[in-house]
Amino acid sequence: MKMNMESLAVQLFDAGAVRLGDIEAKVGRHTPIYFDLRVIVSHPKMMNAVSQQLLELSSEIEHDILCGVPYAALPFAAVMSVNGNTPMIMKRKETKLYATKKILEGVYRKNQKCLVVEDVVTSGGSLLETVGTLRNEGLQVTDAVVVLDREQGGVSVLKANGVNVKSIFTMTNLVSILRNAERINDETVEIVSDHIKECQFGLNEALERILVKENGVLAN
């Protein structure tokens, strides 16, 4: 039985995938709400429910193969690949330094259409980095499906770079669902709303984030 979005949002919160507080995000700034989908690997039913929602988002997007942004989105791409019978490739964090010396693992052909899968879009930097690698390898990338759009400018950055993004949740509708389910209060909704307005990213920030990652300053 398919899990609706409201039930999914509440279960993600209850499982610890949505955390509240003054949290330092990996982009080096603080956030009042953090989305940690890595915990979902320990919850098979939830993993399948999230992947099914992503699969539905992808149903009207023409694509030949899937690629998850490493590492948090890889499990979702794998489940989508199996359930949707769509081949998947994997992007390595760094080029393999021995044997095949590949940056991409799996079988693909140039000019195939690759759909990118991501967990969260904030600045768009991680997704944009993966898109760049895939395009450099001769693949066509015009679309991505994500679990959460934090509404902080990343989707606009990606669109400006030729990537259309579809998301299961936006931050606004996620906090609205959690408020209606009495998991968070009005004060938290207001704090998150203010944070979205005050902390917006543009192309320069996304590119800076990619450069910092390449220099090894930021961990996954």
Secondary structure: elements and pairs:
Blueprint: H1 5-14, E1 18-24, E2 30-35, H2 44-58, E3 65-68, H3 74-84, E4 88-91, E5 104-105, E6 113-121, H4 125-136, E7 140-149, H5 154-160, E8 164-170, H6 171-180, H7 186-198, H8 203-214
Parallel strand pairs: 3-4, 3-6, 6-7, 7-8
Antiparallel strand pairs: 1-2, 4-5
Task: Provide an overview of this structure.
The protein has eight helices and eight strands; from the N terminus they run αββαβαβββαβαβααα. 41% of the residues lie in helices and 22% in strands. It is of the alpha/beta class and 220 residues long. Strand 1 (18-24) and strand 2 (30-35) form a beta hairpin. The strands form two sheets. Strands 5-4-3-6-7-8 form a six-stranded mixed sheet, with helices on both faces. A two-stranded antiparallel ribbon has the order 1-2. It is globular and about 50 Å long.
Which labels suit this protein?
single chain; 220 residues; alpha/beta; 6-stranded mixed β-sheet; two-stranded antiparallel ribbon; disordered C terminus
Question: Nutshell version of this structure?
Answer:
It is built from 8 helices and 8 strands, in the order αββαβαβββαβαβααα.
Count of helical stretches: 8
Distance between the termini: 34 Å
Q: How much strand content do the residues show? A: 15-25%
Characterize the largest beta sheet: strand count, sense, and whether it forms a barrel: 6 strands, mixed
Shape descriptor reads globular
Q: Would you report the number of β strands?
A: 8
Mean pLDDT: 89
Structural class: alpha/beta
Rounded radius of gyration (Å) = 17 Å
> In sequence order, what are the helices and strands, one letter per element?
HEEHEHEEEHEHEHHH
Q: What is the helix fraction of residues, given as a range? A: 40-55%
Low-confidence stretches: 211-220
Strand order of the largest sheet: 5-4-3-6-7-8
